[in-house]
Amino acid sequence: MGDDDVELEARLAEQDVFEPSEAFVEQANVADDAIYEEFEENWPECWQAAADLLSWDDDYDTVLDDSNPPFYEWFTGGELNASANCLDRHLDERGDEAAIEWVGEPVEEDDRTYTYAELHREVNEFAAALRDLGVGEDDVVTMYMPMIPELPIAMLACARIGAPHSVVFAGFSADALATRMNAADSEYLITCDGYYRRGDPLDHLQKANEGLAGVDHEVEATVVVDRLGPNGDGFGHDLKGTQHDYGDLVAANQGAEVDPVARDAEDMLFLMYTSGTTGQPKGVKHTTGGYLSWAAWTSQAVLDIEPDDTYFCSADIGWITGHSYIVYGPLALGTTTVMYEGTPDHPDKDRLWQIVDEYEATQLYTAPTAIRAFMKWGSEYPERHDLSSLRLLGTVGEPINPRAWKWYYKHIGNEQCPIVDTWWQTETGGMMVTTLPGVKDMKPGSAGPPLPGVDARIVDTEGEEVGAGRAGYLTVQKPWPGMLRTLYRNDERYIEEYWAEYSDTDSDDPDEWVYFPEDGAKIDDDGYITVLGRVDDVINVSGHRLGTMEIESAIVGVEGVAEAAVVGGDHEVKGEAVYAYVITEEGHAGDDDLRERIVAGVENAIGPIARPEQVIFTPELPKTRSGKIMRRLLEDIANGEELGDTSTLRNPEIVEEIRVQVQD
Ligand code: 6R9
What pLDDT score was predicted for residue 5? Predict the structure, then answer.
């Protein structure tokens, strides 16, 4: 630690409340505290403010239809098109301004700027091509693509013709792709030949083709973007059959214009699969009117985005953060959104700061796991660059510890930028709990109060509100426009997963319905919420949600494994890491070979992000007398913590045997 850091720690360590700077407040999009009361008194009509940020082809009749909870409908009767809202309506005033600044891996020096006019043009051309391939309204189109501009182009092209997209994170495995295409009966895939990772070309089409082999229905067409050019020749891929080259399709449709399809506000804009407690991922359904207005309103109110900004979110579009806050929110507001390909430590550990400097980014939205890594690498990396263009900083994905918060505040924001710590989920569509940066003080470690009009409360197991300081469960007691509408083709599971816990599921009174995000939390006297983490069997690795069941079933699928239990253990940078406790089958040794096959099995089934940090072989798992695995105990072992009373276990002797392996 340098002298500066020592001084910073001393000065900032004591401080637990931070005010936004006057300079920020003066220009903030929302600067009046009265908004909280106004929205509460005027709920749900207050959400017209969000809908008003969009252009509607047909006005809506009702703000909220809550006649059939929890199947809420927003802005009913309204019609709009998401691609027209993100592109066409900006053309007159901002046609020549940058819509997307794409910063590619620094291999080819091929950064690209798309003005709104250029983006509009290519989206139209590709939309025409998709139609030619047979894509119709409501056909689900899957995208399996890394951070290349053709991904947002494809998303907007689908939105233009009313075809919902389902983006599968490029780091997911072939199996994960197949599972998601099967679950959605998706007959179209858009992918690419490969991409660069730390300077090296990586074969992606092979993985896509393996995934396609696992699809249980006919695939009408696959579109392949040529990202690597001659650098991909070594992979030897030839497009065959129903595979098309993206470049050829766009060229063949040069200058084509496709009228944006007027979609009902409640029509599906996209599906996004996310991990749950069971092995089967959940297909979260988002709609055109509610989702887009939520993404736009929160981008304006929380990220303080204005059209003249150059806004930079370092997330991947394969996750919800990228959907809402790289693509839809920023483009709906007509600003410049920066997307980058690669990793924050290549070619050097100043990649993000280099981008902020070069593009003069005004906001940076990133994840605590990244901030913890930056902190570890040291402040000399940001110090190499001029970061004075930044006006606001944000974090998302997991709780941020006060030390990391303060490092971010000082070394990236120069104590001038407010930080918004935004709690939300794939299911919520956009931000729910965070400070409004021009209005509220910040408390490091605490996300802040619920946004105006959001009725988030902390309750106990009975659903009763708990007092300040006590841990409980986070709930949302009123619907909001950006909420998921259901789990795709599975209304029952939608109710079971999110509502059953605290609702009277026989009632048609919306007051009896409470949304449960499966996070633990506490609240302080000022109404600031500190989110404590998941309370289900989902772990959060580097801000990514992984179901322990999914990982366990991958491990049990490996030859030689009899049983497995997966838990999250604390990790300095990743937040949580995967710990796998494994019982081998008779005749199989728990050796390095099996360990390697287990790691490979998890990577094949899910992807490298789910790779176990440790595989611990054990003859038994600690179980209660009723036969339940004591996960809490396995977590304590992973975290090197003192183990409490184990005498109620069926097999207490096993605990010490496992502990010695992990902790000593
Ligand atoms: C946007 C996103 C959602 C889960 C969520 C919670 C955790 C997200 C957080 C946070 C504490 C924050 N989470 N933001 N925990 N503070 N600011 O991350 O969506 O991938 O669906 O994950 O992430 O546990 O339930 P998703």
Answer: 65
Ligand 1 probe mutation, 167, 313, 396, 434, most atoms within 8 A of CB: 396
Amino acid (one-letter) located at 71 = F
Whole-number percent of the chain with pLDDT over 70: 98
The protein residue whose alpha carbon is closest to atom 10 in ligand 1 is 398
Closest CA to ligand 1's atom 15: 398
pLDDT band at 463 (very low <50, low <70, confident <90, very high): very high
Ligand 1 pocket, mutate which of 286, 426, 531, 534 (most atoms under 8 A from CB) = 531
Residue 1, pLDDT > 60, answer no
Atom of ligand 1 nearest to the CA of 395: 17
The secondary structure of the chain in percent helix, strand, coil, rounded to multiples of 5, reads 35, 20, 45
Sequence-distant (6+) residues with CB within 8 A of 618 are 581, 582, 583, 654, 657, 658, 661
Domains and CATH numbers, the chain: 62-68+74-419 (3.40.50.12780), 538-663 (3.30.300.30)
Residue 110 has pLDDT above 80, yes or no: no
pLDDT of 61 over the 70 cut? yes
Rounded average pLDDT over 540-561 = 91
Q: How far is the CA of 399 from the centre of ligand 1 (A)?
A: 8
- Give the CA count within 13 Å in the CB-facing half-sphere of 598: 33
